[in-house]
Task: inverse folding
């Protein structure tokens, strides 16, 4: 299980970083609305991790699948947040100020607020997507075998 969520989590982070750098190359990294694609990237990575884990097990347990989804997205969120912190503090120090200007905030909240926002958005996206995908992948009780589990 560790191999599944760690490898997919790292790959999701790599794709997120590549997407951000592509936006930087084009000059569109200043527009926060384009970070909605991050949710799609998270979704694809978490779903693939859950499918891979489910294919290895003949009896798919909800708790274990939920753990795989959360840890996959958590690893990706942490790695991407570390990258963005390095980027904002070391490479492009004006990036945070430009984002705050786009958001029309009149007070300086600093770069740390953006870093925390990225981390919280990553964790919340992970939680919501994992809950949604587990509904698709869990075993249904609406079968002949499931009828024995009713009162």
Result:
């Amino acid at each position: 299980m560790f191999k599944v969520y760690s490898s997919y989590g790292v790959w999701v982070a790599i794709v997120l970083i590549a997407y951000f750098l592509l936006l930087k190359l084009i000059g569109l990294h200043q527009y926060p609305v384009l970070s909605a694609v991050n949710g799609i990237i998270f979704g694809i990575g978490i779903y693939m991790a859950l499918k891979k884990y489910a294919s290895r097990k003949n009896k798919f347990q909800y708790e274990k699948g939920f753990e795989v989804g959360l840890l996959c997205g958590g690893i990706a969120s942490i790695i991407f947040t570390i990258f963005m912190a390095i980027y904002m503090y070391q490479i492009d120090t004006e990036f945070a100020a430009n984002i705050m200007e786009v958001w029309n905030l009149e007070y300086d909240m600093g770069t740390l607020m953006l870093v925390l926002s990225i981390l919280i958005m990553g964790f919340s996206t992970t939680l919501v997507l994992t809950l949604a995908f587990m509904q698709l992948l869990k075993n249904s009780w609406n079968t002949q075998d499931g009828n024995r589990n009713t009162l």
In short: The mean pLDDT is 83.
